[in-house]
């Protein structure tokens, strides 16, 4: 894929949603997802100008936090 998806806000929002669902469905893989840099990128997207990207990134991060405290 040669197209950069950075400027497509809908793609970023959907990606955040998918990452959030993945963290909630398979919480034991959180560490591996963090190793890939996904948590950091989701946190960066929390400051995006687009409201839907911010909302979905916040929801995705809530999954990380929820399972971080339920051990």
From TrEMBL:
InterPro entries per the UniProt record, alphabetical: ARM-type_fold (IPR016024), ATPase_V1-cplx_hsu (IPR004908), ATPase_V1-cplx_hsu_C (IPR011987), ATPase_V1-cplx_hsu_C_sf (IPR038497)
GO molecular function list: proton-transporting ATPase activity, rotational mechanism
CC annotations in GO: fungal-type vacuole membrane; vacuolar proton-transporting V-type ATPase, V1 domain
Keyword check for Transport: yes
Claim: Transport is one of the keywords in the record: yes
Residue ranges annotated for the ATPase V1 complex subunit H C-terminal domain, each copy included: 6-67
Keywords for the protein's UniProt record, in alphabetical order: Transport
Protein name as catalogued: Bgt-3266-2
Source species: Blumeria graminis f. sp. tritici
